[in-house]
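Hi again,

Forgot to attach this to my earlier email, sorry! This is the prediction with heme C bound. I've pasted everything inline since the attachment limit keeps bouncing my files.
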Amino acid sequence: MKFTHFLTCCSLLLITLTSSHAQQSQPSIEQLLNEPFLDDYYSNVVYGYEIITDTQQHASRYVGNSLNCSNCHLQAGTQQEALPLNVAGMYPKWRAKNGKRNGIGLRIRECFLYSMDGIMPTEDAPEVLAIAAYVTYLSQGQIMGAEPEGRGVPTLPDTGYDPNAANGRAVYLEQCSSCHGQQGEGIADTPAVWGSDSYNKGAGMNGIREAAGFIWANMPVGKPKSLSHQQALDVSAYLNLQYRPADPRESKFLKLLERLIN
Ligand code: HEC
Ligand code: HEC
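Structure tokens for the complex follow:
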């Protein structure tokens, strides 16, 4: 083989190798954060990541409590059974909560309204577009249309007993209050679980079963899956009874505000 042929072969091989590599993996968030310059897609991905992990700083104009998205979507939305955000392939999807088919944008905007007890950003708000880019980024490698493994939170089996808020109070004081506070108000970096700085009554986390699945799989921090299913249900029933901001669907004033900004 001539030397020039050899060289052509080598470069073809190199091109094949690098292009197949580009299809299979994408830069990590850490790598992207260190890049001096990012294209439009990746700069949105990074912005979305920043909003998820520090919502207070990067999307405060839409937020009404002291939570960050990643307080519930743990590890910046990458942790299975902790409401992971690698769900781009699941949308659009019919949603009973609002009685229509939801795109990922509406799904994101609703978490601002309920979980963040805030106001709904407009459809084309840069924050919403950036979070959508981050959700797409996290969804790489998933089969579009198929439920990703560990989506949402685990569904706890029926224990045969109703959730008992009085027992839940004992669980809370023993296992949760040292971090989340006697009054559920949150301490330092640990978020509130009730009160005016918490998610509102319309939020998914205010559902006893949803909260129980989250708490059983992820709480207390450092001791996941240590509570019994019944304890997780009981403590969720206790959280559900506490004061928190009203469901905005029941507030005419907030509805009016939403109309005005949309
Ligand atoms: C060791 C400290 C610690 C303990 C104990 C603990 N949590 Fe948490 N909890 C956290 C932290 C920190 C977060 C936020 C996680 C993050 O941002 O990564 C959190 C998040 C949460 C959330 C979602 C965010 C919010 O504030 O609404 C709920 C609900 C919750 N915890 C309930 C509980 C319950 C119920 C218990 C007791 C069974 C418990 N936690 C025990 C530290 C703790
Ligand atoms: C208090 C906890 C909490 C906070 C804070 C929170 N979420 Fe959620 N989020 C949930 C729960 C619970 C669900 C699933 C239940 C439901 O559909 O209501 C969910 C579902 C989602 C989904 C759909 C996931 C799927 O499996 O299809 C997206 C997207 C989402 N949230 C985005 C966000 C964004 C963006 C933020 C911050 C602006 C945020 N969430 C803040 C609790 C929270």
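Residues 12-22 have pLDDT under 50 and may be disordered. The CA atoms of residues 14 and 20 lie 10 Å apart.

That should be everything now.

G.
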